Amino acid sequence: MNTEFTDWLRGLGDDRLRALVAARPELITPVPAHVEGLAIRATSPSATGRALDRLDRFALAVVETLLVMTAEDGPGLSQDDLRAAMAGAVPEQDAARLDGPLREAVDGLLSLGLVFGPASALRLAPGVRDVSESPAGLGPPVAEVFRHHPPERLRELIQAIHRGDTGREEAVPERLAGLLAEGGIVERLLGDVGPQARAALEELAWGPPTGRLPNARREVTVATAQSPIEQLLARGLLAATGEESVVLPREVALVLRGGRVHRDLRPCAPPLEGAERDRSLADRTAAGQAFTFVRLVEELCEHWSVDGPGVLRAGGVAVRDLKRTAQLLDLPEWTAALVVEVAYAAGLVASSAPVDGEWLPTTGYDVWRVKATEDRWEVLASNWLAGDRVPGLVGERDDRDRLLNVLHPELRRPAAAEVRLRTLRVLASAAAGLAPSAASVRERLAFEQPRRRGAYRDRLVDFTLREAEQLGLTGLGALSRFGRVLLPPATAGEPARLLAPLLPEPVDHVLLQADLTAVAPGPLTSELGRWLSLAADVESKGGATVYRFGEESVRRALDAGSSADELLATLERHSTTPVPQPLRYLVADVARRHGRVRVGTAGSYVRCDDPAVLDEVMADKRAVPLRLRRLAPTVIASRSSRAVVVDTLRALGYSPVAESSEGDVLVTRADAKRTERPPAARPAPGAAGPEADVVAAAVRAIRAGDDAHLARRQTVAAPDGQVPRSPSTGTVMALQEAIRQGTRVWIGYMDSQGHATSRILEPARMEGGYLTAYDETRAAVHRFALHRITGVADVN
């Protein structure tokens, strides 16, 4: 069949061949040398499995029906017969519209190269059967199930079916399969067993077809059978596949199913169900959340600029640091983890060193924060969409029972980006204003990719829906207009353009109150928000943010280089009310004491122009750990570092400042800590696949190489002499080298009848215990079982 499939590929027009490699871009990575190389690659187990993973439930049902209704080397199935085989599983209301979806499914399978041949004789491509286990929940055929049973056991089963002597015919699995395939035989055998045995078969009929049974290989005949299970084993209606496992043969299951391959088959995707939302309200809600998320990322980076958490030895951020960050941002821990992970994905935070480093904002953050809010959101959302990390797993444990911290290296999941994209595309396919339920989205995705369905994938879908709401891609569960245009193929800047009119207008003023608080009546501009976070502490958040001024916060502003006059001038400029007298007194009092005490390096020293102040310090018992020593009326020395002395004196109620060795005051700015931005991750391949000119060039190269290959292809005789023999490890290594070098080899091969032959091969691929190669002695592409290759030698 490999030759027939290759000839079919060769006969395709260039437009259909371009459609094939565009739908399966892995087939031209790298570009094969000729059409036979393309056929080898397309029918390999990994490439075939990847193509099957792209099928929806109905297209996969077409493949499963062909698997069941056709033999590997038998004739194909016409499209009319295929329709008849599938019509019984389609509900009556969908039967009338089966033709269109079936035609589209067959065309899609032909374009993917999973099915080939004319409409009157459709056949499965080589390799599809090798990667399809239990199609439609059916077990293997009778001939395969009983292949390894001894002849005596097969003869007993044939006698049970015939109810008499089997004659001189050979007791082989094919003989047993032929008997069970005869009309009415399975029905008669089912009538001979009791209702309990029949019920046991019904449980296995629709899959899974296997079950556990102690002592499954027991010797039992129709005469000696006592239990319902033994009645089935004695008649071949159930077969042992191991010491404790049994399987329901395919022919028996099809009779139990009434001849249907599938139980319930719908040709179209299930409809999305959910709540109806006002579209403009959903967009405004999403925009508000997008604005909030941008500010949260900015607030995170500002906090980590001053005091970044340490990098754990195993990578990531410690649990206590995540809790502290969540408290600072006033968020649940899972939301704080999402903010951190998205900032990391966007390259805004990184570790300063792999070991004993800190998580700090990068130099890229300074570029990001000066952009408009809508542009900053687009950066965050697009990096989240393309990222392969799963913040929802933070707090769980891996296979080795290790805790998965935020920013832990093991949070990467290869399927994350694809699941996010597919989930958002399902939301995009919903009617305008519809907010699909999570169950409805999971059901749709299960239809679109049934081979990838599972509890793990469902969790990724739930994480995506939850995170999309936090990021502002969705509002009230419905995909926003600006979130919709973010999906590939996206135009850079278009999401930001649609988001900009919906964002709340930042305010550049606050209301100062006599109780030393400032009320921000809305979201502040970035510059005012950063300055106010430095000069005051956030007391509460909500529709309006309340900031409180205190000695420590005012000292922070003075430490950052502001003077008392500059601080008050900034407050007057941005306040709609006069600066209250208590706030003026607070600023003046802190400024009067600020910098009177100065700390330098000796170990360190403390100097002050007022000796009475130093007398107080020396007399304070809380300063004993500093081990202070008076050098002069205005100078004290300490063995502790400058930073420790500064922190201790501040804890004692003083307002010291640090100075350099030249006596200059050291100004500490909040944005002083930065690290280098890590190299950008390799972007995930877009859903649109390779570009059209790349596909066209690949097809031209394949055609040209195929013409040259056909011009030199001739059947050659195998060399004379002893069939090559070599150790198995040496054989595999020699074949791998031949694949890398593209050279020919001479192999010895033992066929299924035990006959030794020799072949001249061009090895192309080695996978799953098989070697796929062009056999020059047969002038065709074949697959060879590696364990049957006796040896390899070079071709002279």
Structure description:
The chain contains 33 helices and 25 strands. It has 796 residues and is α+β, with helices and mostly antiparallel strands. The strands form eight sheets. A five-stranded mixed sheet has the order 18-19-17-16-20, covered by helices on one side. α17 (319-329) packs across α18 (333-345). The longest helix has 28 residues, at 279-306. The chain is elongated, with a radius of gyration of 37 Å.
Structure, briefly:
It contains 33 helices and 25 strands. The protein starts with a helix and ends with a strand.
Q: Helical amount among residues, as a percent range?
A: 40-55%
Question: Compute the gyration radius: what is it?
Answer: 37 Å
Total strands: the figure is: 25
Q: Helix/strand/pairing class, anyone?
A: alpha+beta
Question: Termini distance?
Answer: 31 Å
Q: What's the helix and strand layout?
A:
Elements: H1 2-11, H2 14-23, H3 35-42, H4 45-53, H5 57-69, H6 79-87, H7 92-95, H8 99-112, E1 115-116, E2 123-124, H9 142-145, H10 151-162, H11 173-181, H12 185-192, H13 195-205, E3 210-212, H14 228-234, E4 239-240, E5 245-247, H15 250-256, E6 274-276, H16 279-306, H17 319-329, H18 333-345, E7 349-351, E8 359-361, H19 363-369, H20 373-386, H21 416-429, E9 434-436, H22 438-448, H23 455-471, E10 474-475, E11 478-479, H24 481-484, H25 494-499, E12 511-513, E13 517-520, H26 526-535, E14 537-540, E15 545-548, H27 551-559, H28 564-574, H29 581-593, E16 597-600, E17 604-608, H30 611-619, E18 629-632, E19 635-638, H31 642-651, E20 657-658, H32 692-712, H33 728-741, E21 745-750, E22 756-767, E23 770-775, E24 780-785, E25 789-794
Parallel strand pairs: 16-20
Antiparallel strand pairs: 1-2, 3-5, 4-5, 6-9, 7-8, 10-11, 12-13, 13-15, 14-15, 16-17, 17-19, 18-19, 21-22, 21-25, 22-23, 23-24
